[in-house]
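Researcher: Go.
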Amino acid sequence: MTAVLFPGSFDPFTSGHEAVVRRALAVFDKVYVAVGVNSDKQYMFSVEDRLQRIRECFPADPRVEAVSYSGMTVDLCRQLGVKVIIRGIRNADDLEYEKTAVAVNRALDSSVETLLLVSDPEHQDISSTLVREQLRHS
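Model: Structure:
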């Protein structure tokens, strides 16, 4: 079985994130959606709420597992036996950020690969930041 890790804060988990998971399921047998927890960061939604939202998007699909973690992403990869991280990118800013993250992860564990999935056009303008702003003003 080939598994992949899709890490992020997912505050909140958006339709763009869901699309990345669905695309990954076309290639991999299992997708771990890993909700990162950073004690220095203030989130709009609790970890439990974020995990629940992911589980609601894939209620009957055992190939998707929502987990939470703190610490380094490559450490979670080792713990789960995963050798591939996937990330969605919407634009050049995302690409620049991900290039740095890839370099850090490779320096920590060169056996872990990262695959970048370019967002579908209908999801390129969706961001968790934008969704949070809309929620604050609704």
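Model: The mean pLDDT is 90.
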